[in-house]
């Protein structure tokens, strides 16, 4: 680093100083997303480089992984809101928390069957473009919006419903997560809990 400072003529700085400055970074969402077509999904990130073989061989305690739950603008791939949880958090239960914070910004929200929740349908009403599970009933028990989609699928087909609602747009959130992992990797290298969360946040942006 000192040699580089001589070549490029900038003040000397140590790796410790760089580390401390990085740890002071607090990422914030800065966008004016309103009335947007959005998609929601989650993806896991490892918090250890140790593989399953080493964990089993040496009987190391499994560290698990973190889940990034995110809602993105499917037109420009900007993130609208997100949350970070452990691997055990249910997608739909975590999703409704995010949706309640930003539902006024959403025009349509695309999600997979993991977000088939009456609470989400009722919160977004006809803005929810989420296919119900196969065992969904056509009666309006708890959500008239979910029942409406179910009746359409039973009468025609899930494929027809997807075509009518441009459901293919949901794949943009898959592309978003794939891009993050290809660019930054799927492993979190930080050790301290607060640094782990910060590294996840920096990956998002």
Question: How would you characterize the overall build of this protein?
Answer:
- This protein has 205 residues and is of the alpha/beta class.
- The chain has one domain (31-204).
- Helix content is 42%, strand content 17%.
- The protein is built from nine helices and five strands, in the order H-H-E-H-E-E-H-E-H-E-H-H-H-H.
- The protein has helices spanning 2-8, 15-23, 52-57, 91-102, 118-124, 144-155, 158-164, 171-184, 193-204; strands at 36-46, 65-73, 79-86, 106-110, 128-129.
- A five-stranded mixed sheet has the order 3-2-1-4-5, sandwiched between helices.
- Strand 2 and strand 3 form a beta hairpin.
- Helix 4 packs parallel to helix 5 (118-124) and helix 6 crosses helix 7.
- It starts with a helix and ends with a helix.
Morphology: elongated
Strand order of the largest sheet: 3-2-1-4-5
The whole-number mean of residue pLDDT values reads 86
- Report the radius of gyration as a whole number of Å: 21 Å
> How would you spell out the order of helices and strands?
HHEHEEHEHEHHHH
Residue windows where pLDDT falls under 50 for at least 5 positions:
none
Quaternary structure: single chain
Helix content: 40-55%
What is the terminal-to-terminal distance?
A: 27 Å
What is the makeup of the main sheet?
5 strands, mixed
